[in-house]
Amino acid sequence: MKRFAVRLAERNLLKCLFSGNCWSLRRIPESRRTIVYLHGRGRAWEQELSFAYLTVKDRLPKILTKVIDTIHRYKNKFFEEHGEEGLEAEKKAISLLSKLKNELQTDKPILALTDGLVDMDMWNQYLERQQSLLDDNVPPSWFKSPWLYVECYMYRRIQEARCLNPPVSDFDVFEEGKTQSFFESQQASLILCTYLQGLHKDLTDLSEEQLREHFIKLLQVCLWGNRCDLSISAGQENSQKSSPIDSLESLKPFILVDESTKIWTTLLNNKLTRRPAGSSRRVDFVLDNAGFELITDLVLADFLVASGLATDIHFHGKYMPWFVSDTTKKDFEWTLRQMLSASHLWMSVCGARWQGYLKEGIWSYQDHPFWTLPHEFCDMAADAPELYAELQRADLIVFKGDLNYRKLTGDRKWDYDVPFETALRGFHPAPLCSLRTLKADVQVGLQAGQGENLTAADTDWMTSGKYAIIQFCGPHRG
Ligand SMILES: O=P(O)(O)OC[C@@]1(O)O[C@H](CO)[C@@H](O)[C@@H]1O
Ligand SMILES: [Mn+2]
């Protein structure tokens, strides 16, 4: 607790320097010193039109309603598979989720979890931390807590509603949307696999400059794959329809920060630097959405291995259904099986190669519970040291998507030109990059005045998904 309070004070002191106008300063009596806790987006919600407020007031209830409808639609299936027990489980799960929706919409206090899952204590300790930052008689509630916390908490309560009601506990309420996104993006996926196969054929003849050009293209395809996210669309179909390669040129102006060259240089230096025999060149992907975005991740990962820029790839997914379309182990394995059994030759060839990479250990998949906690990544070294140590073995970590960016930067209303490394606040297990389309109002690392100009031109530039960044934080200096 003390450790957390001290870290909080350091962070707050840092944050106090920023002019953010969305802070509600809550004075927390903490021993003799008061720690000024900058309350996330608490104030922002009081601004009726803030993105955080509209997300919690409108979009999250819409997502919850879809979840309830989905479970109801599967009622007969639960009965066929599990008899009366299945019906009972469906009824109880719906009742828990309806209660959750009412708590959310009427700003009720955040409740401790009771399902006994592996991460339950971490969640309940986090709730205690939130309580310790408020006046004793003010419980953390849905509209008086940081947006990042309550949004993550909603998905964890959905998990609780499943797990408290076997046999629906392994029913993924978001599965339909994720598989639909995969099938609706088939045309784009086969274009991508055909392009990748062409690279595999010519790889040994490519010059370094040609290799770099292909890398930059596949990195940008991977970046824009992040637009296919079902949380921002509240579950509405959101798949890739156009050619992911042909559209790159027209999308370039919308990349606000492009540090691709720094990423390329890091990978190339790793490849060219002599290392002890048998040592690896490791790239970790902290995954985001299943469906087309996952295909773009796998294609880039394949290219990195085939080109020798990496010798092994570690994928990090979610250990429970998360933010509607995030990738679980089941999604990852299903996607590889779908690719393998695809009618299109090159998709099937890619699927076979990818299954082979997994079997040979060139690719691996893990899903640490930390990724589905509400914690900012600067808390990882203290709260999940084994995961932080795992990431320290990487030569490059690729963070995909908007939620990861919010956790990298603590979801603070930083000034736009604050350096990315500053916003990481000490989270730096290895050289890392973020490939993110902007869908939440937090952004750092811009040029002076760039954010203000964007706001003047397009008030929704941070939340529309139209703009993107490729941001890099290199090796430790010194
Ligand atoms: O991480 P992703 O899939 O790119 O985006 C997640 C997201 O859609 O959900 C949150 C808003 O509800 C935001 O972080 C973001 O808009
Ligand atoms: Mn996501």
Termini separation comes to 32 Å
In CATH, what is the homologous superfamily of the largest domain?
A: Uncharacterised protein PF01937, DUF89, domain 3
Strand content: 5-15%
Tally of structural domains: 2
Low-confidence stretches: 1-46
User: How much helix, percentage-wise, in residues?
Assistant: 40-55%
The appropriate CATH architecture of the largest domain is 3-Layer(aba) Sandwich
**Largest beta sheet, briefly?**
7 strands, mixed
Order the strands across the largest sheet as they lie in space.
3-9-8-7-4-5-6
Radius of gyration: 22 Å
Average pLDDT, all residues: 88
Number of helices: 19
What's the count of strands? Answer: 9
- Subunit arrangement of the protein: single chain
Could you tell me the CATH topology label of the largest domain.
Rossmann fold
- Reading the helices and strands in chain order gives HEEHHHHHHHHHEHEHEHHEHHEHHEHE
What binds here, in terms of ligands, is: 1-O-phosphono-beta-D-fructofuranose, manganese (II) ion
Question: Can you describe this structure?
Answer:
With 478 residues, this protein is an alpha/beta fold. The chain folds into two domains: 35-168, Transcription Elongation Factor S-II, Chain A; 196-473, Rossmann fold (3-Layer(aba) Sandwich). It has 19 helices and nine strands. The strands form two sheets. Strands 3-9-8-7-4-5-6 form a seven-stranded mixed sheet, with helices on both faces. It has a two-stranded antiparallel ribbon with strand order 1-2. A hairpin with a 2-residue loop joins strand 1 and strand 2. Helix 4 runs antiparallel to helix 6 and helix 8 (186-202) crosses helix 14 (345-360). The longest helix is centred in the N-terminal third of the chain and has 31 residues, at 75-105. Residues 229, 231, 288-289, 323, 325-326, 401, 403 line the site of manganese (II) ion (MN). Pfam families: ARMT1-like_dom (PF01937). It catalyses: beta-D-fructose 6-phosphate = dihydroxyacetone + D-glyceraldehyde 3-phosphate; beta-D-fructose 1-phosphate + H2O = D-fructose + phosphate; L-glutamyl-[protein] + S-adenosyl-L-methionine = [protein]-L-glutamate 5-O-methyl ester + S-adenosyl-L-homocysteine.
